[in-house]
């Protein structure tokens, strides 16, 4: 909390408070990759080899372009250039545009976007799938 004009208290909110980084193998980006919950600080602190990006609702702006851009900005501040794989759960216009517009930066930061080339069929349902080996 900080004091704003006229000594009014203004609450500052961040999805992840500042602190040392946490290293994980696989992270599911919370809340359908909504920018209200995931920001640059998230990617500076939560470092993973694999990030799963869900969201297939363009009306709700999921996945959020701001979240995808935050990944690039946060990863640029890591000390190492470890390989990061982004796994979208759905094909979306936001994801396709982001991929095309930032492809060069993704390569510079050693980020790979994994497209699903497999389909799983369970009972009456089929959906794209990816195999991840940790």
Summarize the structure.
This protein is α/β, with parallel strands linked by helices and 134 residues long. The chain is 27% helix and 28% strand. Mean pLDDT is 80; it is low at 9-14.
Distance, first to last CA: 40 Å
Q: Point out poorly predicted stretches.
A: 9-14
Strand order of the largest sheet: 3-4-5-6
Q: DSSP helix count?
A: 5
Question: What's the multimeric state?
Answer: single chain
Mean pLDDT: 80
Sheet-strand content, in percent, reads 25-35%
Most strands sheet: 4 strands, parallel
Number of domains: 1
Q: Based on CA inertia axes, which overall geometry fits? A: globular
Order of helices and strands: EEEHHEHEHHEEE
Report the strand count.
Answer: 8
Describe this structure in words.
The structure is a single chain. The chain is 27% helix and 28% strand. With 134 residues, the chain is α/β, with parallel strands linked by helices. The protein has one domain. It has a 4-stranded parallel β-sheet with strand order 3-4-5-6. The longest helix is centred in the middle third of the chain and has 11 residues. About 4% of the residues have low confidence.
Characteristic key phrases:
single chain; 134 residues; alpha/beta; two-stranded antiparallel sheet; 5 helices
Secondary structure elements and pairings:
Elements: E1 2-3, E2 9-10, E3 22-28, H1 30-33, H2 40-45, E4 46-53, H3 65-75, E5 84-88, H4 93-101, H5 103-108, E6 111-113, E7 118-122, E8 125-129
Parallel strand pairs: 3-4, 4-5, 5-6
Antiparallel strand pairs: 1-2, 7-8
């Amino acid at each position: 909390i900080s004091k704003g004009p006229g000594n009014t208290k203004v609450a500052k909110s961040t999805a992840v408070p500042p602190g040392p980084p946490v290293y994980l193998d696989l992270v599911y980006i919370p809340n359908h990759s909504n920018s209200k919950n995931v920001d640059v600080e998230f990617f500076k602190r939560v470092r993973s080899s694999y990030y799963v990006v869900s969201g297939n609702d363009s009306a709700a702006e999921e996945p959020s372009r701001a979240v995808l851009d935050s990944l690039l900005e946060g990863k640029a501040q890591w000390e190492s250039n470890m390989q990061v794989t982004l796994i979208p759960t759905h094909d979306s216009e936001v994801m396709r545009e982001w991929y095309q517009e930032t492809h060069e930066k993704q390569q510079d930061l050693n980020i790979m976007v994994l497209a699903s080339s497999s389909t799983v069929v369970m009972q009456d349902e089929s959906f794209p799938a990816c195999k991840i080996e940790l």
